[in-house]
């Protein structure tokens, strides 16, 4: 569940980008803007690298090893946006404002995913405690269920089977939850970067090449949508409308689609988590909680005769 918990941190990255945009829009030099925001370790590291003579985009990428895994796509996206804006001569402040909007949209999507996943995940964690509850119940009735489980041959067999089933359920639950997490943490990024690039006023081919180079330099080679970007640019040429608005519209549509897909995965997870419950946890409850109690009852009955 790391990604869902990291939504607030992603919102923090968006706030940093927004503040950078405001400072740059007010006429603060880029190098000074980073220094004014150097309260967090990440921004302080970027500021130190910039003061050492490193270009801003490279300074951000160089700081990535110190950044939490789930924040890295956002910082890589910021580095790519900065690189594109600097390369094509696009105004940095408006470009960063748009990128901050993109990050906030993704943050909101992750919060929605966290809410959708919280109920089924909490249910799975609760039922994982059933075998322990069964043992405590037998112990509270005055039966030595723990002694049976750890000192008798049938009890040890139940213990081995039960632990195996619980470990299988735990691994199964983790795989199901991991599969429900969003895979793309930068939906619509190529569209957003191309929108920034075309505001520089250069040729569209140059904008596309700049975006591809920025993605490569910032470790985002896997970001797709090349065909989609070309289709939007072709529509812009044929219709004679500004490409930037079309591209930003496609970027927002990509984020909405990613949000809807993640929500659908979360809703399916609630059903799929019933499989390890029925096939692993409940049988483990029987062999760890019920079987030792029955063995203890039978043993005490026989010994009392």
The best one-word shape is: elongated
Order of helices and strands: HHHHHHHHHHHHHHH
Give me the Rg, rounded: 27 Å
The computed structural class is mainly alpha
> How many beta-strand segments?
0
Tell me about this structure.
The structure is a single chain. By secondary structure, this protein is mostly helical. Helices cover 81% and strands 0% of the residues. The chain contains 15 helices and no strands. Helix 6 packs antiparallel against helix 7 (92-127). The protein is elongated, with a radius of gyration of 27 Å. The protein starts with a helix and ends with a helix. The model is unreliable at 1-6 (pLDDT under 50). Keywords: Cell membrane, Membrane, Transmembrane, Transmembrane helix. InterPro entries: T2SS_GspF_dom. Residues 18-137 form the Type II secretion system protein GspF domain.
Keywords:
single chain, 305 residues, mainly alpha, elongated, T2SS_GspF_dom, membrane, transmembrane helix
